[in-house]
Amino acid sequence: MVVTAENADFVIQLLAYIESRFAVGAEYSGGGISPTNEPYVVLTGGGWFETIAQAADDARAKFDSYAVDQVGTLYWRIRPEFELTKKGWRFYMRLLISNKSASHEVADA
User: Fold this and answer.
1) Which of 23, 51, 66, 93 yields a CA-CA distance of 20 to 30 A from 78?
2) Full 3-state SS string of 45-70
3) 69-100 confidence digits (pLDDT tens)
4) pTM of the model
5) Any bridge partners for residue 39, and if so which?
6) Pairwise CA distance, residues 75 & 15, whole Å
7) Which residues of 24-34 are buried (b: 16+ CB within 10 A; e: fewer)?
8) Residue 107: per-residue pLDDT
């Protein structure tokens, strides 16, 4: 995907929305297991979208569904990404919201 100012704006807006809802934990580069020793959750589009705006709306809806009863800290493995292919737009993110304490040493955010 070619990153344009418009595409970047959708990522920035989605990230700001998500991170305004929870405290954000420190980065951790320990692979597929979060600092709390829990697996990350994959959120991805339910289909292909004609516009990035539609994909961003779907991303926000998927996040809201996941986050509805969650409390704690948000840990990112992969921040929101948008992809444009011949089929259309999709999004992908990998995260965890947890009320458990980090059990790994983490780098400063």
Assistant:
1) 51
2) CCCCECCHHHHHHHHHHHHHHHHCCC
3) 999 999 999 999 998 889 999 999 999 999 99
4) 0.86
5) 33
6) 12
7) bbeebeeeeeb
8) 47
